[in-house]
Design brief:
The structure holds 3 protein chains of 3 kinds.
Chain A (H helix, E strand, L loop, with lengths): L14 H12 L3 E7 L2 E6 L4 H10 L7 E9 L10 E9 L4 E9 L5 E3 L8 H12 L2 E3 L47 E5 L11 E7 L2 E8 L7 H5 L8 H4 L7 H16 L5 H29 L4 H21 L8 E2 L2 E2 L7 H23 L3 H7 L7 H7 L3 H6 L6 H4 L11 E4 L5 H24 L18 H6 L1 H13 L6 E9 L2 E9 L7 E5 L1 H7 L1 H5 L4 H11 L3 H5 L1
Parallel strand pairs in A: 2-5, 6-7
Antiparallel strand pairs in A: 1-2, 3-4, 4-5, 8-9, 9-10, 11-12, 14-15, 15-16
Chain B lengths: L3 E4 L8 H20 L23 E3 L14 H5 L5 E7 L7 E9 L8 H5 L5 E3 L14 E2 L1 H4 L3 H6 L14 H13 L9
Antiparallel strand pairs in B: 2-5, 3-4, 4-6
Chain C lengths: L2 E4 L2 E4 L6 H7 L23 E4 L6 E2 L9 E4 L3 H14 L17 H10 L17 E3 L2 E3 L9 H10 L4 E4 L6 E4 L11 H6 L5 E3 L12 E6 L8 E7 L2 E7 L12 H4 L14 E5 L2 E5 L1 H15 L3 E4 L6 H14 L2 E3 L26 H6 L7 H9 L5 E4 L3 H4 L4 H5 L3 E6 L11 E4 L8 E4 L4 E5 L12 H11 L9 H11 L8 H4 L4 E2 L4 H8 L1
Parallel strand pairs in C: 1-5, 16-17, 16-18, 18-19, 19-20
Antiparallel strand pairs in C: 1-2, 3-4, 3-5, 6-7, 7-10, 8-9, 11-12, 12-13, 14-15, 14-20, 21-22, 22-23
Classes of the chains: A alpha+beta, B alpha+beta, C alpha+beta.
């Protein structure tokens, strides 16, 4: 583990263009440039914030058109910080394949900043979240209201001085998200938060003109539990069980992403066997997630057979997970630096069995759906999303690829040895529900390919790093010698102590780029953890997508977006 | 590997034929389910789905030969627990080799997230998990289980052992190697000193 | 002043400074077991080996005096190897005891294994030499197996208390520490033995198996046990004090504190604590809200005017005393604090280490603030003569002495601020619940006239409030004002009005406090 933050240095390679162009454009309003673990972080003056973001997006040499994440950070009483708050933007350039982190420091007395809603469409909800959790005011924001917490909530819970033991009784529901024009014949329809067609507890309120949706507003936060705040008082490995509850349809992948982010921070890689097993289980989880997305989507449209068909394969995958992890859904199988235990002896046989049943059910589902005229009529040209809008909203994963943008983290920034596997990236052309469906089906087959390759060359060896500052010692050693026992004790009560610094670790989750922005101050608990949940960006576009369409189409669209409340609300 | 981007084929031709195929699939599955016992569902609670030997169910405290808990109240499990659901109070045992034992050991099963970190953290092989996964209670107090309940063996027989300390990784053969080197180079075989 | 370079950092140190001290000044921690800043150097553990340029062999940093131009490396390959092997050697016979050892969490072995060891074990359990375990030495538990034979306890007994209880017995790998015939430790400083022991060989009996130390939060404070004012940490969890631990202050207590002081945390979380106000009504006590009780007390004080009397307590902080004095002056009553004449014993020692005869932390502060004004005897005389209509006590000391009760009985209204329930509160007509020292912000002035800070570790139980706040509320009801809403502000007002305290504030006090000028006989006494 390197011990110090690398000093401000001239960044190398592709990233130097970012710094050069920003310096040209903003001059001395670029305050600081740092590179840590390959992440480029640029701090700008708050007055240059919007201009800097616009430059990043528009300059043809930079082309940071994919909005990833925006969040607040509270550096209360940190001696090395001049200002208390910080706002952090993460963006990505699909064409140049590079990430950037743009930061701005805000004083406690006046935490205001210009809004980026005019630059990135996706910034809207993220800024509302930063206001909600940190009390940062975005000037010019069209609707700066609470988003994750209740409207009557007092205070900003992610602030470091928020009393965590404080309890609020919040009962008053927010009845109207929209206003009905005076004297109109329009009807307000609530879909959710508890509605069979909503895939989780979130809510859409639609203003109906007959069957047509005139206007729609979304409300989320029903399942908000502030995972990020809890993470600030847990050690790095205690956070692992919490990640299972993010996207619970593919829980293993969240832990995989978290472990990789922390390993990046530590500079300690997992051994090859652990990485290969992680890839196999992640791909199984992806398949499971896609199968759920597809089947529950068509259930909403009245076709229940595919649902029953594909859940057979899901059962086989769950049994595989149970055999490895000891749980079907809340797997908690990864550890920082590897895995909790080696896979069972019959791992390969179980995988083969699951693969057979996946092939079988996917084929059946395809036969049931792809050329089915009823299905095609409900899906074709419904919920069309252009590539530009998708990038601006920060869409990722199958939804972005459905819109024709071939961005897949596994290909463009391979992790866990994905560069050693041969697979294709499917993309759509129109960006409608049908394309998203086809992309998911194709991805299932690609995942099967990856798993087969990984199984064929599954390396032998340990499944967790031998770095004693990261991994618990083997139990036989703990029972029999004092050195391992002390090591064990220190790791349990003190946890892993990473170097101070900040990283953005990202993986291709089932719904797209799942990012963990981790800020460490060298202590046992992270100073800040920000999850960049793919659903959050995707669902944000939903109200706009359904405007002008039929109510029945809204149901078709939401299923295809595969929004998972655990990840959406965190 | 070179990035291969494939565009999905939208030019599928919907028609009446796919619907017939669909009906065939449905019918086949039905027949399989009815006549070939291919049902995926189980008749719970009469029938239970099998769980693996790593299953993380309700905890157990292991016992010494004399029936007292192996636990020495070191609080490692309570420290590692991300849900803060373990409550321990320590007392003194007369044996000088053991010294310490838990006078209270309670697990709040309603808080527990069944992550198994307590098992990972235990340095004494004192806590493990059973495969029991269908506990029912009618009040919160009932589901805070105490030391005696945790040491009950009957359930273990019924459900089988679940997640427990494993050592099936092949790390650190270092110590064995060091001992072999001692023997080879210096002729020293570690063992109790001759008196 | 010799100049040296340690790990690339250049620094200038006082002549005679050892390498380990110099490194600490530069913020570099050299691993060690036997070296202790307040004990003589022994150099037996060999853990602090460092590489010194132009010296052929590694040197122990604790006993190598910095010479001009010395270049020291504490983390070179050679030094790191030495740390690792020394540690491995110390662990050869160490029992597999972390689960049952209270030291886990503050153990030098654990810390240094993670920082400098990380080696694999080469010893089988069966090979380890067994020694005596669980030996009860009164306030201390001895486990000879865990001992690293650093002799810190021996040196403490020899040089600090002069009792020489411990000695090494046997030799070779069966060497262990022991007291003669296992006699218990009988002096008042036994707790320090557990503190100086870098491992789990000597542990506190009181703290035994009570709590794991990594759950504890520490708050800097000052012991309220006597006028010495030892610096301490209050270790607490979930609003409950679990133990007191000395905090190093070379000017006051070095690294030590006495056992009676250590036991003071036990008074804090007890059920006898007062959690609400009460006033006497016909036929008995009536629990009322604090503001209501304050209304009543203020009305009686105001009515009594110059026929009132105020007795402060040297248990209170300077802030409490300042507010109390302001109240007394506004009402116009008699004022004093010297119940039992603590000021006469302020600098009198009762042993040669730390303890003093005056069992109050702030007698000096009360003197500084001018609370010694009318004399307790004079107040009692006027009480006995029936000339006092209302008496406000800042603490129940006066009522604890049965000789005073006749006089107090002649006063028609007695109000008392108290922290604990007790029979002495019987004669009072109103009882106001006060916070204890670990629950308030404030300052106390010790026998050397060192102003030191108390910090609030956790909230007070129920409605208990700091005494200064109670006084300020009474003052407001009597028509005055303190113009301060926090202890910090009260202290600023105090510093503005007491010349000797001028220019001080909480920040200036820091964690070690600030010594004020002490003259004449007092200075000589304090130095003694």
């Amino acid at each position: 583990m390197a011990s110090v933050v690398e000093a401000p240095a001239a960044p190398s390679g592709a990233t130097s263009a970012v710094v050069r162009i920003l310096r040209e454009r903003l001059g001395d309003r670029v305050l600081d440039v740092r590179e840590f673990r390959g992440d480029l972080a640029i701090t700008v003056d708050r007055r240059a914030w919007v201009e800097a973001a616009r430059t990043l997006r528009d300059d043809p040499e930079l082309d940071f058109r994919l909005f990833l994440d925006l969040c607040g950070v509270d550096y209360l009483d940190k001696e090395d910080r001049a200002e208390r708050f910080e706002v952090v933007l993460h963006a990505y350039s699909v064409s140049k394949k590079h990430h950037v982190r743009l930061k701005v420091a805000l004083p406690e007395a006046d935490p205001t900043l210009g809004t980026l809603c005019g630059v990135y469409k996706g910034a809207n909800w993220f800024e509302r979240e930063a206001w909600d959790l940190y009390g940062i005011v975005f000037q010019g924001h069209p609707n700066l209201t609470r988003i994750l917490t209740h409207d009557d909530f007092v205070g900003h819970p992610m602030r470091k001085d928020y009393p965590t033991a404080k309890r609020h009784v919040l009962k008053r529901p927010k009845e109207w998200l929209l206003s009905v024009p005076e004297g109109s014949e329009h009807l307000i329809v609530n879909i959710g938060p508890s509605h069979p067609a909503m895939h989780g507890t979130f809510r859409i309120q639609a203003l109906m003109d007959g069957e047509t949706i005139q206007d729609a507003q979304a409300e989320i936060g029903y399942m908000h539990r502030n995972f990020e705040k809890m993470a600030e008082s847990r050690t790095y490995w205690q956070i692992i069980p919490y990640t299972d509850r993010l996207n619970y349809c593919s829980s293993f992948m969240n832990g995989h992403g978290w472990a990789l982010a922390v390993e990046k921070l530590l500079g300690v890689p997992a051994p090859p066997r652990a990485e290969a097993v992680r890839v196999i289980l992640s791909e199984f989880s992806r398949i499971m997630d896609h199968l759920i997305a597809i089947s529950t989507n068509v259930v909403d449209l009245g076709a229940i057979t595919p649902f029953f068909v594909v859940f057979r394969a899901r059962e086989d995958i769950y049994e595989l997970l149970d055999a490895c992890c000891g749980a079907r859904l809340t797997v908690s199988y990864v550890r920082i630096g590897g895995l909790a235990a080696d896979v069972p002896d019959d791992f390969e046989a179980r995988c083969r069995k699951a693969l057979d049943s996946i092939r079988d059910v996917t084929l059946q589902a395809e036969k049931l759906l792809t050329r089915n005229p009823i299905f095609a009529n409900r899906f074709r040209d419904i919920g069309v999303m252009s590539a530009d809008d998708a990038l601006s909203y920060g869409w990722v994963g199958p939804c972005l690829r459905g819109s024709g943008v071939a961005y897949d983290v596994r290909k463009d920034h391979p992790y866990s040895g994905y560069d050693g596997y041969d697979f294709d990236v499917p993309i759509g052309t129109v960006g409608d529900c049908y394309d998203r469906y086809l992309v998911r089906i194709e991805e299932i087959y690609q995942s099967v390919r990856i798993i087969e390759q990984a199984l064929a060359k599954l390396p032998k060896g340990p499944v967790i790093t031998d770095d004693k500052r990261v991994a618990l010692p083997p139990k036989s050693e703990v029972y029999s010698n004092i050195e391992a026992l002390m090591n064990h004790f220190k790791l349990v009560y003190e946890g892993i102590l990473p170097p101070p610094g900040e990283v953005y670790g990202y993986t291709e989750g089932a719904n797209g780029e799942l990012g963990f922005y981790v800020v460490s101050d060298g202590q046992k608990c992270p100073w800040r953890v920000k999850v960049r949940p793919p659903c959050f960006n995707i669902y944000q576009a939903f109200p706009q997508m359904i405007r002008g369409g039929f109510l029945a189409d809204a149901v078709a669209i939401i299923g295809g977006l595969n929004v998972v409340a655990g990840e959406l609300d965190r | 590997m070179a990035t291969r981007v494939v565009t999905v084929d939208r030019n599928t031709r919907p028609g009446i034929y796919p619907i017939l195929i669909g009906l065939r699939i449905t019918l086949t599955n039905m027949l399989k389910t009815v006549f070939l016992k291919g049902a995926s569902t189980v008749q719970f609670p009469e029938q239970k789905r099998p769980t693996s030997g790593r299953y993380r169910g309700i905890h157990l405290l292991t016992a010494r030969e004399d029936g007292t808990p192996k636990c020495v109240a070191c609080y490692m499990c309570a420290t590692a627990c991300p849900a803060e659901c373990i409550y321990i109070e320590a007392g003194e045992r007369p044996e000088k080799t053991i010294e310490k034992y838990p006078t209270r050991f309670e697990i709040d099963l309603l808080r527990c997230v069944y992550c198994g970190f307590c098992v990972d953290a235990c340095p004494e092989e004192a806590i493990m998990m059973s495969r029991e996964n269908d506990l029912v209670g009618t009040s919160r107090e009932e589901l805070v289980i105490d030391r005696d309940r945790l040491m009950e063996r009957a359930k273990l027989v019924e459900y089988g052992p679940g997640y427990r300390p494993s050592d099936n990784d092949v790390r650190r053969p270092v110590r064995i190697a060091a001992l072999e080197r001692l023997k080879r180079e210096h002729g020293i075989v570690p063992g109790p000193p001759a008196r | 002043m010799p100049r040296c370079t340690i790990d690339g950092k250049e620094l200038e140190v006082a002549a005679g400074t050892t390498v380990i001290q110099a490194a600490l000044q530069a913020g570099i921690h050299i691993p060690h077991f036997c070296w202790h800043p307040d004990l003589p150097v022994d150099g037996n553990c060999r853990m602090c080996l460092v590489e010194v340029e132009k010296m052929p062999k590694l040197q122990i940093a604790c006993n190598t005096v910095v010479a001009d131009g010395m270049v020291v490396r504490t983390n070179s390959e050679k030094a790191a190897q030495a740390h690792r092997t020394t540690l491995e050697f110390l662990l050869v016979n160490h029992p597999i005891d972390c689960p049952v050892c209270d030291q886990a969490g503050e153990c030098y072995l654990q810390d240094q294994y993670m920082d400098h060891g990380l080696h694999d074990s080469r010893v089988e359990v069966e090979e380890k030499v067994r020694k005596r375990k669980v030996v009860d030495l009164g306030p201390i538990m001895l486990d000879a197996e865990r001992c690293v034979l650093c002799s810190r306890c021996l040196r403490f007994e020899r040089d600090v208390t002069g009792t020489n209880s411990f000695e090494f017995v046997n030799r070779g790998n069966v060497t262990q520490i022991a007291t003669f015939e296992n006699r218990p430790i009988e002096h008042d400083y036994a707790g320090n033995l557990a503190d100086v022991c870098p491992v789990g060989a000597l542990l506190s009996h009181d703290f035994r198996f009570k709590m794991r130390v990594w759950f504890l939060k520490e708050t800097e404070s000052v012991c309220p046990g006597c006028s010495t004012g030892c610096n301490v940490y209050v270790d607490h969890r979930d609003g409950e004090a679990q133990r007191l631990r000395p905090r190093r202050n070379v000017e006051v207590n070095r690294s030590w504190m006495c056992d009676p002081g250590r036991a003071l945390y036990k008074d804090i979380g007890v059920t006898e604590r007062l959690t609400g106000a009460r006033v006497r009504r016909e036929g008995g006590w009536d629990g009322v809200a604090v503001p209501e009780a304050l209304d009543e007390v203020a009305a009686r004080l105001k009515a009594a005017g110059p026929r009132s009397a105020f007795l402060a307590t040297p248990q209170a902080t300077n802030e409490d005393l300042f507010a109390f004095k302001a109240l007394a002056e506004t009402v116009g009553g008699m004022l004093d604090f010297r119940v039992g004449d603590p000021h006469l014993r302020l600098r009198e020692r009762i042993d040669h280490v730390l303890q003093r005869a005056d069992r109050n932390p702030n007698t000096q502060g009360a003197l500084d603030l001018g609370l010694a004004r009318d004399g307790v005897d004079a107040v009692l005389r006027r009480c006995a003569a029936g000339e006092i209509q209302a008496l406000l006590l800042q603490g129940p000391e006066l009522l604890r002495n049965a000789d005073n009760l006749d006089a107090v009985a002649r006063v028609p209204y007695v109000a008392v601020m108290a922290t604990h329930e007790g029979p002495e509160l019987g004669p009072a007509h109103a009882v106001l619940p006060a916070s204890m020292w670990a629950e308030v912000e404030g300052t106390v002035t010790n026998f050397q006239r060192r102003v030191q800070r108390l910090r609030a570790a956790f909230p007070a139980p129920g409605d208990a409030r700091p005494r200064w706040e109670l006084a300020a509320e009474l003052l407001r009801r009597c028509g005055g004002t303190l113009a301060a809403t926090s202890a910090r502000e009260v202290f600023l007002r105090l510093c503005a009005s007491v010349p000797d305290y001028a220019g001080l504030d909480y920040r200036a006090l820091g964690s070690g406090g600030r010594a004020l000028r002490l003259e004449g006989l007092a200075a000589a006494e304090a130095r003694a």
